[in-house]
Amino acid sequence: MSDFSNSGGWLVGSQTGLVNCVDELNSTAFIGIDFGTSTTVASLVFRDETGRGIEVRPLTLSQPSQHGGVVRDEIVNTVLAFRNETLLFGRDAYNLRSRLTEGRNSFSSFKMGLGLDLGPEFAATVLPAGRVPNITIERPADAAREFFKMLTKAINEELARLGFKGDARFAFSVPAAFQANQRRDLMAAIRGCGIEVNENCLIDEPNAAFLSYIHEVARAPDGAELLALARENKISVLVYDLGAGTCDVSLLDFSISGERVTSRNRAISKFTALGGDDIDREIARRVLVGQLRQDDGSEVELNSLDIEEKILPKLAPAAEKLKVTISKMLADKDVGHLDRARKLPDMVVETQTVAPFKMRGNVISISVPSLSLHQFLDILEPFCGERSGADDKLHLVGPVHDVLDKVSMDPDEVDAVLFIGGSAQNPLIRAAVMDAFPPVVREVVPRNLRALVSQGAAIHSLGLNGFGFDFIAPITSEAISVLTKGGAIETLIPASTPVPSEAPFVIQLSIPEGEQRQLDVPICSGARDRLVGIVTVKPIGHSGFKGGDAVTVTGHLSKEKLLEVTVEVAGQTARAEIMNPLSNAAASPSELAMLKERQKFNESMLRNNGRPSPDVVKAYSKAAANAGEHELAADLLVSLERITLGSDHATSICYHYSMAGRDKASHEWAGIAYRRRPTAVNAHNLACGERDRGIREKYLRQALEHDPEFTSSAAMLASMIEDRDPDEAQKLRQMIITVLEAGTRSSDTSMQELRRLREAARQLGKSSVAERAKSEIKRREHALAERDTVFREENLAEGRGKMIGRERLF
User: Fold this and answer.
1) Which SUPFAM superfamilies match (predicted)?
2) pLDDT at residue 475 above 80?
3) What is the CB neighbour count within 10 angstroms for residue 67?
4) What is the maximum span of the chain, computed from C-alpha positions, in angstroms?
5) Quick count: other Cβ atoms within 10 Å of Cβ 408?
6) Domain ranges of the chain
7) What does each C-alpha distance from 384 to 208, 285, 430 come to in angstroms?
8) Per-residue DSSP letter, 792
9) pLDDT reading at 504 higher than 70
10) Do the strands 531-537 and 550-557 form a parallel or antiparallel pair, or are they unpaired?
11) Is 414 helix (H, G, I), strand (E, B) or coil?
């Protein structure tokens, strides 16, 4: 007789022999927890009424009320709130969000901050270490730990109410593309609340949903057809999981042979921090921010820091309610496409007042938050409308194509699409996904989208803790590769590799030329710009590595998806455990440098009760500017002027707002800067923002009065007056050449000045001067590109094929 417990047959069998195999169901609670970005659900495995099968039901949990007493619900909002010296979680914590301050006494979406080491991100927290006994919330990982403490307490209380007196065994669902650093933080939070588990307790969310779906189908009256297909041939199911914070897509194969159930995860999408919260924030940003009013009815002036960090968290609950109202209306009308929805008469929905709150001494609120149908459809367009290259990062169908491309599979080879996650309740999103498939592919929408993952996690808990059986092995979402000479990529670990890897992966590279002083082995995930680490090896002695020296790179993945890399060359060995704790997405060196400064900024905020050190703010602003985040750079300097009396950063603020396209703000700060210090630079900046040509010329001439050799104003003025006064224009251009030509190679001459010199020389027909300026511009651009990398080309190994034009010779 076959052992159903080890074959997985108990998942689909009508009579599974659970009487003999799982007697401990009476004394042990097998629990699955779907820890979601916005909501969390816990489910429990029960014996069914026959005693020979199982059923899985979500637990109704008690959540503390702000007024005393409890609220009971299967859905637990993944939110914490600290009010009246009491920490709340769940429903009422969520309801208090608009009345409290995110990151201070309200904490939400902290799941998405797991795995990042950005210092104390909740720098203004009212719960720093030592403030309240046994409670610390300074980072997202702290919030996750405190949430799990309260959640497990509620679970234990519910188990006691149901009569369970034995042990509880847990399993937890995670996004399939969660990286090693994210999984490690989650495990630390789980263990931090007293739950003893190992990494096997984690199951990818799409896999958990698939387990639950198969279990339910096997017991449904109309489930025989699917099981018959699985017995005849394998079936392929694409699981589309759209939650509040992530979009996870997995492709799984499923088959039944005799009493053995086989399931294989073929591919998962790359980590995509995109979900319902992003739609909520767009509604808040594009619609509700404009509805904010002060007490006197006037509009509110806000900068980007105010909006992103303070305003949007307060408006998000109202935005979500408006979104849900319109989505339900569209579902009731059976409208599943944007084009059909646009043909409906426009309508406006409203929700409860956004409670008044203070912002720099002003009381602001929205008396009646509202959203029109057509506004909502415009906001949804980048998410589920026609795909274009510009919108692909936002488009919710992108992960579907990512998965199918990884396995070279056509859409018509998929048998069914299983939708899970609260945000998948939106019919427009489901229709956009199904449009990627032919009509023969089934659309499967479970009755309870929100509980399906937790029920699958509970089944995983039973299989793992009851039978020692891991039904579906996790896999990697992206290929792990090594960057080599000439921009080539050598795959070390292919995409869709089962985790942990059974045996190490090995590739052979070589040292291209003799006397190489250092070997850098950059490791990337999925693409060149997703650099996750570098392994560096230095030679013994001063002669360097020899040309042709063999380089052996070995890679292994742990259960936590932690990448272990070993590099051996000329008797030297270097090892590294690679994670990317500063960013869960692709990041350039300048972006990583900005994140490091943000880390210092957060730490300074916490140490100084929300008032960062001026030096730290300056460094963060500079790093933001280097990363191209000019609006953030400007906003930080505006904040610096508020916290440092007498400081003057108006000129820099004007420049950064201009670079960010904030022309109105830039011109306002140009005026402030000129009033404070009437210099050539400030007069020139003021001229740049003037539409009136006469006033613009006036300020340009004032700039040249302050500094007769100020080439920026000379170049602009020459262009303005050349038709009216060509002789003066020529004199101005000659002055530019006189001032700048001698310093062509000087580091004191900026790139902008070199471009100005080149243009002036061209206008006056001085081709040799223009050519020298052009040559220096190219030299500096190349040097800048080299400096913005974290490794140098000459330190790389050579791949197995040399690049010759577009072809590779092996």
Assistant:
1) Actin-like ATPase domain, Heat shock protein 70kD (HSP70), peptide-binding domain
2) no
3) 7
4) 103
5) 8
6) 276-384, 480-578, 589-787
7) 26, 19, 9
8) -
9) yes
10) unpaired
11) coil
